[in-house]
Design a protein that fits this description.
The chain contains 6 helices and 2 strands, in the order H-H-H-E-H-H-H-E. With 140 residues, it is mainly α.
């Protein structure tokens, strides 16, 4: 677990200027393309499966899930998951502004900024959890 604690400490020092409380509102989507904290070797980028989120899961959920560690995360026995999804509710960002799903309902000017704020908050660590992977799915 020392490697995970060190990764979290490095992140706090490098990305949050030593302010651990900044982790609460940090948009993990900003780590796309970051080899140290973002996607791991051989993995595509997914906010709830970054190197940083995996490290946090192993520290926070230590002793909660049987055998949860960096190896079992790598093996796919456990996986991070986003609790409250964005795209299912509001759709992906639209080139013309707003979001595809939301735009269909002609939102008022006060609603769009609130949804835009949620778009940056839904990729925060507080909206993620690690769960056991009980089934595997093969996609052809």
């Amino acid at each position: 677990m020392n490697e995970q604690v060190q990764l979290i400490t490095d992140f706090i020092n490098e990305k949050l200027q030593g302010n651990i409380y900044g982790l609460v509102s940090y948009d993990i989507a900003q780590l796309k393309g970051d080899r140290k904290y973002g996607e791991g070797k051989g993995r595509y980028f997914d906010c709830d499966d970054t190197n940083l989120s995996r490290a946090i899961f192993t520290v926070v959920f230590d002793g909660v899930w049987k055998d949860l560690n960096s190896q079992t995360l790598e093996q796919g026995k456990y996986r991070g998951d986003t609790i409250n999804s964005f795209n299912t509710i509001f759709g992906r960002p639209a080139d013309e502004g707003g979001f595809f799903g939301l735009n269909q309902f002609e939102p008022d000017d006060q609603h769009v900024p609130r949804v835009t704020r949620f778009h940056s908050l839904y990729h925060t660590i507080g909206n993620m959890v690690v769960l056991p992977m009980l089934i595997s799915v093969n996609i052809l």
